[in-house]
Amino acid sequence: MSAPQVYAATTTPNPKSSWFLVPSASLDKSRFVIKVLEVLLSFTAFILEEVVLSCVSCSALYFFEFVSCTAFLFTLLLLILLSTTLHTRVGITCWPSLDFVYTGLIAVLFLIASIVFSSDNGNTTVEKCAVAFGFIATLLFFVDLAMFWRSHGFPFRKDGKAESSNGVPPAEVEKLNTPAAVGQ
């Protein structure tokens, strides 16, 4: 018997071994699209802010630069981790909580940065466009947060279920050898 005949039935490819995991428990298709748009809009806001040639009060510009760059880089990282198998290799088990807190924090920071930059800029077209993309990205971060809450609920609620503690099982509630059980 030749080798292909012996191994043909057992070496079929596994369709579940794909590296791309959308939809998954961590990220559904609609939130994946929203996160891609968040990455693109925050990157566009960052690039437009970088094109500004001069600033009247540069602190607002620098704060907007920091927030838009942070939103772009960390949202891209989160998107890559949650949509591939890489999130299983990082050692973090609380991805829903991390995603919820990160998205909420960036939404608030982007809102503050966009408001501050819109109130304190040189009124050039590039600055106005950067602010507009900042507000649109902010809106998408809030939409992402609402979609997460609608589909997964609040990730920190205490509803009687044992919460994950990074791989450590919850402590036993009742001991096996209690004095009442030993005497019977």
UniProtKB/TrEMBL annotation:
PROSITE patterns linked to this entry: MARVEL (PS51225)
Keywords: Membrane, Transmembrane, Transmembrane helix
Keyword Zinc-finger assigned: no
Broad class of where this protein is predominantly found: membrane
Pfam families hit by this protein: MARVEL (PF01284)
Cellular localisation: Membrane
Region ranges (Disordered): 161-184
InterPro entries found in the cross-reference section: Marvel, MARVEL-CKLF_proteins
GO cellular component terms listed in the entry, alphabetical order: membrane
Residue ranges crossing the lipid bilayer per the database entry: 39-64, 70-88, 100-118, 130-149
Protein name: MARVEL domain-containing protein
Organism this protein belongs to: Dicentrarchus labrax
Lineage, opening ranks: Eukaryota, Metazoa, Chordata, Craniata, Vertebrata
